[in-house]
Amino acid sequence: MNGCLQMMNEGLVPGNRNADNIDQELRDRRHLQFPSNTLDMGGSQGIKACSITSFGFGQKGAQALLVHPRYVLATIPVEAFEDYVRRRDMRWRLACRSFSEAMVNENMVSRCIKTQPPYAAVEEMAVLLDPDARF
Fold first, then answer.
1. Contact yes or no for 45/12 (Cβ under 8 A)
2. Residue pair 19/33 in contact by the 8 Å Cβ criterion
3. Fewer CB near the last or first residue (10 Å), C or N of the chain?
4. 95-111 pLDDT per residue, tens
5. pTM (two decimals)
């Protein structure tokens, strides 16, 4: 997902330098591309959306569709956009201040570091084997 966000932000699609043996049947598909070099899609204006598919173990899969913020934010009224910008800037300033303070105070971990699970040791097997267990 981070790679897709970077592609939308920069407009660059990294090539797969190791893609030297693409199956001929896949190469014949005109809508599929297997670049071995980086493609410049026209800067940050070039990529409007990305689709990510992940196939996990046990047939647990997921798909995410990412749309460039300029297209999502263009659908809301001007007042809502201005409110969003104001709140986003406030969050960004707070995050920068928090990060700077943590760096200066050498305290990057602001909460207690957990050393034990949130259940008693005798309950471990029951909790781990219960699909409905929540903490």
1. no
2. no
3. C
4. 999 999 988 988 877 66
5. 0.56
